[in-house]
Design a protein that fits this description.
With 81 residues, the protein is mainly alpha-helical. The protein is built from 4 helices and 2 strands, in the order E-E-H-H-H-H.
């Protein structure tokens, strides 16, 4: 992924109870991941949610993968930087 996941992902305490969402949408990361877990393709997601981009979807996976790295999970401080 070119760029940083912070370009596409943020926490908004007013939306989705502060869960990480894709900027410019009300789509929580867990919702997007759930679509892929339900065997949706990237094309199906992008067609169903035209405000999303391939870069935003890659940011979801980049953010999620960080949960399993030595750096630990992203925090709100990471997103506000």
């Amino acid at each position: 992924m070119n760029g940083d996941w912070r370009t596409h992902i943020h926490f908004d305490p007013v939306r989705r109870l502060g869960k990480p969402v894709i900027k410019g949408t009300r789509l929580a990361m867990e919702f997007i991941l759930g679509l892929f877990a339900a065997d949706w393709s990237e094309q199906q997601v992008l067609e169903s949610y035209p405000t999303l981009t391939s870069e935003a979807l890659r940011a979801v996976f980049s953010f999620s993968s960080r949960m399993f790295t030595r750096a630990g999970p992203p925090t709100r401080a990471h997103l506000c930087a």
